[in-house]
Amino acid sequence: EVQLVESGGGLVEPGGSLRLSCAASGFTFSDAYMTWVRQAPGKGLEWVGHIKRKRDDGTAGYAAPVKGRFTISRDDSENTVYLQMNSLKTEDTALYYCTTQKDGASNYWGQGTLVTVSS
Amino acid sequence: DIQLTQSPSFLSASVGDRVTISCRASQGISSYLAWYQQNPGKAPKLLIYAASTLQSGVPSRFSGSGSGTEFTLTISSLQPEDFATYYCQQLNSYPRTFGQGTKVEIK
Question: Which chain A residues are within 8 Å of B55, Cβ to Cβ?
């Protein structure tokens, strides 16, 4: 059974940093592209970014609102993907989901971890 | 970036109704489109990818169609568990944008 468990969310002040983790199990993690999607309270879904599998060069891509502030990385030995968030803004407040990809779509989702940016 | 516009944003329907939700892309995306269902307080669930391919385990009352810029999600006979919010997402290019969502409520 595929499981994705996000952690690391919490309350942080504007300008602060936070690192989210997503622990994966139930599939061959090193073969997977991984994605982060967020959802602000009461709002729709927003694609944050993704990271390719290492054999496809392992690079990451980002949405414009987070580019230069957020970094996605992966540790295939730990079956974990990370989202390092720096220079956080109030508009980054959201529930952050980790997902796997199948033919580009997000086929498995974690339960999400809540990030609140507020002073 | 490719913009996706869903219509309607809200619809009210009864159990057993046939429901259609549209998703229009700002430029052609071939068949690179997915549909998700999100129930309140839950993570989204993939229903359809490649515009018309049903994800494993998804009931056959859900179907998707379209290509290019016009896409449709159809629920042939609405069930109580289908009252939820539905999102389309384009998979043609980065960033992988979502539509704004369509909330399906009980009439």
Answer: 107
